[in-house]
């Protein structure tokens, strides 16, 4: 396993994933009952955009750096939430910091909520413990995130079961399309044991036509609803580059699709390269 997120932190895929994740958290915290969040592929929790790895790829230039140039006051609410979260992180960690999903979950959730983060790479897991382990709401597990879905769901707080919550699955896709087989299998298993959970699976897009079979499998997931949110920053005509990315959302909160329809055109405008950017927010299975 060679993947290190430090090379990619703050790129267009992180912007989409993190802005959508914060909008999910915002919808879920509308009710006071405790939430459980599971981040199956958590990474190291905090990144620095002036570190050698980030500078080598320069990927943040097409992501968070472009968002930083936004004129304040013109952005839709989901983008404002994301910008505010990055700014809160930078007030503590300095202007070159970029937060990972565990930090953002801890930022967005409340004192009564619990967060479990899994990271398989030992050094990344150690870094994650150092960056967030002091937060009593957060448990860091140096283990495989898919087996943790089986072990930790349905989530419990003492003798109580959590009614609601979020599972974020953000694998590095080193196994390419095979990763979908593993992720969708883990999701089917998780839905059987925690059907009311909200689930978000992130995926890279090189050429959308290579995903047609995967879309058909996604549409059969045994959830109340299946929503796709995708952002392409350039045409998907090259099989060699990550031209965009998407999130498959199972049991998305009410009106989450409408919030994404506000967010995505603005992201396509800010992050798109030339005229080739596009986006879609589409139900593969609409809620009944
Ligand atoms: N979710 C993070 C964020 O948004 O800040 C980024 C995660 S990065 C895309 C994927 C991470 O998953 C890497 O740190 C990698 O070491 C880790 N990883 C790879 N396979 C894993 C597995 N089976 N279980 C848990 N973590 C894994």
Report on the structure:
The chain has helices at residues 12-28, 52-57, 64-68, 77-93, 101-108, 122-132, 145-152, 178-193, 212-219, 256-271, and strands spanning 35-39, 46-48, 97-99, 114-118, 138-141, 156-157, 160-161, 164-169, 198-205, 226-232, 244-250, 278-285. Helix 1 (12-28) packs across helix 4 (77-93). The termini are far apart. The strands form three sheets. It has an eight-stranded mixed beta sheet with strand order 5-4-1-8-9-11-10-12, with helices on both faces. A two-stranded antiparallel ribbon has the order 2-3. By secondary structure, it is of the alpha/beta class. It binds S-adenosylmethionine (SAM). S-adenosylmethionine (SAM) binds next to helix 7.
Short structural summary:
By secondary structure, the chain is of the alpha/beta class. Helix content is about 40%, strand content about 20%. The chain has one domain: 3-Layer(aba) Sandwich (Rossmann fold).
Highlighted features:
288 residues; alpha/beta; Rossmann fold; two-stranded antiparallel sheet; 21% strand; binds S-adenosylmethionine
């Amino acid at each position: 396993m060679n993947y290190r997120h430090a090379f990619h932190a703050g790129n267009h895929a992180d912007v989409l994933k993190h802005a959508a994740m914060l909008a999910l958290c915002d919808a879920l915290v509308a009710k006071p009952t405790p939430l459980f969040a599971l981040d199956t592929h958590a990474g190291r929790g905090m990144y620095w955009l002036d570190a050698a790895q980030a500078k080598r790829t320069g990927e943040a230039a097409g992501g968070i750096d472009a968002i930083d140039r936004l004129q304040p006051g013109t952005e839709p609410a989901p983008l404002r939430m994301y910008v505010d979260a990055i700014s809160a992180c930078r007030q503590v960690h300095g202007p070159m910091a970029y937060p990972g999903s565990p930090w953002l979950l801890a930022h967005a959730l409340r004192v009564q909520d619990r967060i479990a983060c899994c990271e398989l790479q030992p050094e990344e897991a150690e870094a994650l413990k150092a960056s967030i382990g002091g937060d009593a709401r957060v448990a860091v597990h140096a283990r495989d995130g898919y087996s943790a879905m089986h072990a930790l769901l349905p989530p419990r707080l003492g003798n109580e079961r959590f009614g609601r919550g979020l599972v974020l699955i953000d694998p590095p896709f080193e196994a390419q399309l095979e990763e979908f087989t593993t992720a969708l299998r883990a999701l089917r298993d998780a839905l059987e044991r925690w059907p009311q959970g909200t689930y978000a699976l992130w995926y890279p897009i090189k050429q959308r036509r290579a995903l047609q079979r995967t879309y058909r499998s996604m549409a059969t997931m045994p959830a109340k609803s299946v929503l796709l949110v995708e952002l392409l920053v350039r045409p998907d005509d090259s099989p060699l580059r990550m031209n965009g990315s998407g999130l498959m959302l199972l049991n998305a909160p009410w009106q989450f699709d409408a919030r994404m329809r506000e967010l995505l055109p603005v992201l396509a405008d800010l992050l798109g390269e030339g005229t080739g950017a596009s986006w879609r927010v589409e139900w593969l299975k609409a809620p009944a």
